[in-house]
Structure formats: C-alpha cells, structure tokens
Amino acid sequence: MSGPAGRLPAALSDDGGSSTQLDTHVVAAVALDDGSLAVGLGDGRVAMAPPGDTGAFRFSAVHAGACLALAVDLDGRSVLSGGDDGVLARVASDGSVDTLLACPRRWIDQVAVSRQGRWRAAATGRAVHLLAADGTSAPALEHPSTVAGLAFDPDGQRLAASHYGGVTVWPTAGSARRRPRRLAWVGSHLALTWSPDGRFLVSATQENALHGWRMRDGVDMQMSGYPVKVKSTTWLPEGRFLATGGAEAVVCWPFAGRHGPMGKPPVEAGPALGCLVTAVAGHPSRSAVAAGYENGTVLLVPLDRSLPELVKRPGNGEITALAWSPDGRTLVLGTDEGLVVRITRDWTPNRATAAARARGQ
Amino acid sequence: MTQIPVTVLTGYLGAGKTTLLNRILTDPHGKKYAVIVNEFGEIGIDNDLVVNADEEVFEMNNGCICCTVRGDLIRILGGLLKRKGLDGILIETTGLADPAPVAQTFFVDDEVRRRARLDAIVTVVDARHLEDRLADSDEAGEQIAFADVVLLNKTDLVSEDDLERVERRIRSVNPTAAIHRTQRCAIDPATVLDRRAFDLDRILTAEPDFLEGDHHHHDDAIASVCLRSDRPLDPDRFTVWLRGLLAERGADLLRTKGILAIAGQDRRFVVQAVHMLMEGGFDTPWAAAQRRESRLVFIGRDLDAEGLRRGFEACAA
Fold this sequence. Notes:
heterodimer, A: mainly beta, 6-stranded antiparallel β-sheet, globular, B: alpha/beta, Rossmann fold, Hypothetical Protein Yjia, Chain: A,domain 2, 2 domains, 5-stranded antiparallel β-sheet, 14 strands
C-alpha cells in the first residue's frame, strides 16, 4: 500500500527524480526550512522525507479520516496537519505526532501559520482558533458562516478569514477586545492570499473569479474570466505577479504598481494543453512557475516567454500538490491517484532552453 | 473519472427519514457510505462516517436570481472525495430544507459536478399528516416536487381511501416520481439507490405510469403540467421558447423534464432543468417501432397550463 516503489521513471521528463506510488489522494505538499518535504494524504497520514529526492518517506498516522490541510509550523522543522476527524496535529521531523486541538465531529480544513508573528490558526465551521506559540488559545473568533480560507499577513499582525459575503480581518494582538475589519463583497469567498508586501488581500470565489482588496483604502478589484474555481495561487518573486490555476494557461495578474491589477489584463503563460491548470508553485528565486495540469503534466513555465521545461509527462491522475524547497532545487508534486514525485535539479533558466534545443525544438 | 453517487433524503421531521437512512445503512450490501446530516435527530445513525454540517444556502453572484447552492455540501463533498473506498454518499436534509439549492449545487459547482453525481432525491412523507403539511408549509410541496422517489410512509395509520387520496395529491404535484407505500420505511434499498434519476438518458423513461392526464390544481400550491405532441419540433424555436420561459418564470418552475422529437433527427433530445439551470442533449435514437412523441413536464407554482400548451405547440416544425 505504501513506501517507495520506484515506479515509472517514464513519468518524468528525463534525468533524475524519484517516484513513490501510494494508494490514496495526495492532498497537500510543503517544504521545510532545510529542504525536507512533507505530504498530507487522504488516508490521514503525513509523509516526510529528507532533503533532495533520494531519501525514503517516513509515514506518521495522524488522522482517523483524511488530512485536509497542511502548513509548515513555527519552527520550520515540523508541519501542522488538519483533518476531517477534527484534529489539529503537529508532526515533527522524527515522525512524532502531538495533538494541538481536538474538535470531535467537526472538520479542520483550514490551517495557517505566521512564523513572523508566532501564531497558528485553524478553522472549524464558523469558528477560528488562534493559538499562541506557547500553545494557549484565545476565545474562538466567530464568523457569519463557515470559514473557507485563512491567511496571516506577512508580519503576522492580521489574520484574514473568508466566508460567505466577504472576509473578516482580525488583529492578532490584544486578545480581550478584538475589533475585526469586515471586507464585504457578495458571494462565497474561499482560499485567501496576502501579497508579500501586505498591501493586497485576494480571495478566490465560488463564482470562478478572484476578488482583491487594497488594504490601505479597501478599494475592490475583481479578476474574472476563469472557467472553474481557482484552487491554487502563488506569488512570484518580489510579489510582482500573482500566478493562478483554474484556466488552461497559467494566469498571472500584475501586482507591481500602486493600483495592483486594476485596469490591467493578466499575462497568460504556458502552453494550452487542452486541460486545466490545477496547481501552481512559484519558484523561490526565478520568475517561473511550476504548473500542474488536470491530466498529470507538470511544466516549469518561465514568465519571460522562453520555452517551458517538461517536468512530468501526462498520466497518474490530476496534479493536486506542488511545492519547492526553499533553495529552489527540489520540487515535490502529488496527484489525486497517489503518485508523489521528487525532483532535485539545477533549474537554471539556460538549462531549459538548452534542453529544448537538444530536443530539436 | 468515476463519479460517486449521492442520494438526498428529504421529508418533514417525523416522517421517517432517519429510519430510512438506517434501513439503507444496515442492509447487508457490503458497501461503504458516508452520511451527511444537517440536524441531530432523536434516532442515532448507524454508520462509521457521519458528518454534521450547518445548512448554508448561498446565492450565486452570477446574475441568475434564483440560483442558490449549498456551501456546506460543496465543502464537505470536496473533502469526502479525498478519501478512497467510498461507494456512495447519503445526505439527510432538515425537515424544512428546500431541495432546490441541493440539486443546483450539482449543476453549478464544477468540482462537485466532476467527481460526484446526484443520483436521486428521495422524499419520505407521513401518510397521515401530508395534507396538513401541504396546506401549512411551502417546503412540503417543494420536497415532493423535487422527488424522484416518494416513500408514502406510515400507511398503517390511515385507511385505504385516505391513502388513495394522498397518493393522488402527490401525483398532482409530481407526476413523474415513483411512489412506494411503506410502513416504518420498510423497503428494499435497491428501490431508492442507484436510480440515476438526474442522468439525462433516464429522464422520463424509468417511470411507466407517467402522464395519466393533466392534474393541474387551480390554487396557489405546487402543481404540474404535462404536455405531449406528435408533431416534430423545430429545434431553434423550441430552444428559444424554453430558454425564454426559464429565464422569465424560472423562479416558479421547480423542475422541468422532457424527451423531444426534433424534426430531421433520429435521436431523442432530452432536457431537464432545476429552476433556471438547464441541461440538455441528444440521446439514443428512437426505436423503429416507437412512436416519436415529444413529452414535456413542468412542475411549479402558478403554472399557466394553457399558455404553456400554446407555447409548446408553436414550436412544431
């Protein structure tokens, strides 16, 4: 059922990388500070592997049901996992599991960590639990409907929670009388992301669009035109672009100027393969996005219009998880059919073009 | 991609929904179900995987005024589909739930639509109290209007005459649902599971006693209008007419179903709608010996039977 199976080098484009076939859905992937990798699984386990693409995964049984959310914990060496058993657990690099919250008969499907502000947060239904680094928690923060997205701002000063009708932004300091700021916009708001400079907050909505707020003055911005809901977003270096899945190309909204994407069209990057981009992960230092497609393909797509690099061929299910190690050398990807692939390479821009030239393209 | 079947159980509190749910779960079928419930009933649910959810009806900000979906179901179905080995999902709604947002969720949300399939809406009604509920609430009528299967339960508590009257009343609201008389919801689960009632190719074909006549009620309750025609339809005229009708009257039209003979086409055209959300397409060819008769059913409020008939007849090629 599990363990490294060394399956299908054919799934990879050419040299390097290792594949592990599991009998479950890969829900999420994250990379830790030292380049270790973690994946959360539909069977409730969390698997961790040492840096690079050769070490074996170590599996920890964490949830009675499925893992629904995964985040790097405060120390950068362990992960937080939320599940449909109502458990929020910390999984350390040695595989040990600590339960931080247990809410029987509820789901924890949203987890956020601010390493800057030393906060953790998890949502169960309409309530958000804000946990301090010492494990103490404030009274739960209540919302008008189920919270579908959670994100700390880059400083950890504010926690945004999305729900039906908008987003509520809470100050994290001053526990007793928190006065939230409500950002209202019709419809159901889902995943949330802050721009790296904290100037913009963006939600993905049920109406197949993104909605953004400029935090200084609350100005609204609508980014629409997607055929499906946007489930994956990533910021490119210096926050110049927000790259997203949810379309047949990687859709990149320009956020560099004072007005963000207002009045500007998005840049579309990557070839249309006749299927949707389901997961994106921006390279930590290059202006390039790892893009995973519905048909199992993964490409490294540069934004400078140079040729994309093939990372994984089609097959093995839809790409559901993608993450880069902080040094930008290792990419981990996962699919809904349980394939996990790790690839360590020198992903330099010239290499992609050189490889393409060698193939006669 | 295989789609997981989802069965929705509706009915007033006390009608016997949870009894039916436990009958399905304890039947020795060897299948693994997840159960989603929106209220705590007095009866426990006999299953390993029970998810409690707050019923959250969301309006879609997409210009369609009556398009509401169930946010809780989108979220929970998305989460459940990350598990392997589930054979089906059963949703027990509250007694006061409007089935429209549940059904519309399966039309509107791309992820739910891709990975799950609304199999059928099963409505349990209490034979003794149904007429009172129809008189004093909107939900009772809506739950029958949306039903693919109606369990007329507690038949031991009323006379045969009463049963026949109640059954006629159900038929007047919904002429296409399969009606089963039960006591304590004793029924073979196969009768309510795997109905494929929302599959286009099963629309109006599974129910032999459909269309015994026009049962239109002249009050403000939910009723139905059944139309039929031997004249092949002009596809453009029909599409324009139906789209216009749904756009204008979609709030009052709860369900629409049809099998249509299109001029110059050997294949049957099938169509269904939940309020304004419509889907349709060409299905299998008409059998050689089969009469090419178009049949169209509207279930809704304040239906203008004569206007609908005229509009439909004007679509002939």
